[in-house]
Amino acid sequence: MYDTPHIVGAADLDPSEPDLLPPEPAAAGAVRPKPRVEAVTWGRQHLHVPTSVVAARRSTWLATEPERPHALHDSWWIIAAVALVASSLIAVVLWISAHVDVDPTLHTVALFVHLASLVLGFGAVLVADYLVLVWLSGRCTLAEAIGGASRLHLPIWAGLVGLVASGALLEPDLTSGLTRIKMILVLILTINGLQALILSRRISQHVPIPLTPRLMGWGAATALISQICWWGAVWIGFWNAEN
User: Fold this and answer.
1) pTM of the complete model beyond 0.70
2) Residue 133 belongs to some domain of the structure
3) Residue-number span of the structural domain to which 175 is assigned
4) CA–CA distance from 209 to each of 53, 201, 202, 204, 225 (Å)?
5) Those residues with Cβ within 8 angstroms of residue 150's Cβ, 6 or more apart along the chain or in another chain
6) Tally of domains in the chain
7) pLDDT per position as a tens digit, 94-134
8) How far apart are the C-alpha atoms of 132 and 134, rounded to whole Å?
9) What percent of the chain shows pLDDT beyond 90?
């Protein structure tokens, strides 16, 4: 009823066809080699490049690329360009103050912003100088003093910008000699703050070793100019308000 399958024996195999012969039994204790598995790749095959060549090419590529963009404290030329722009902005503010009529309400708001900016900027300057005095007294390390002072750059500049911008709406008397001196002090203060960025970077590079006399003198002169300009501008502003 059903066809019985034909069992192929050794006698039925043709010796002329070696692919049809059964494999020979392995010897006892012999280790069969593992079948080689070919790696399956998709798409175009690429040539194998040695790791040393790849590392050399990568180092060459990275050497031609800048590590980071230039910052203000990287070049005196950048500082000079920014100082020129700042001087131009101060001149624009003076022109606005001479050609804009301010109503009492806007004058009151500008006065509040002016005082708040004074507290912010001048207060941050005093704290930065206090940290330097703490280091000189031996109560903290130079790294701690520089780290704390560097975090005060933003409030110092924010206060200075707020003072200049709000001062344009306070109707300053530009014919007064004291007012002109105050504007000169603000300009010197701005340039001094810009060059202090390079000073801060130079000092941070010498933190593990003692500072050179040149850096010490540079830092002392920067702090002295800053204090003279801030206190001078505050005193002239107070004098103009009282008289």
Assistant:
1) no
2) yes
3) 103-242
4) 39, 14, 12, 10, 26
5) 200, 204
6) 1
7) 888 888 888 889 999 999 999 999 999 999 999 999 998 99
8) 5
9) 28
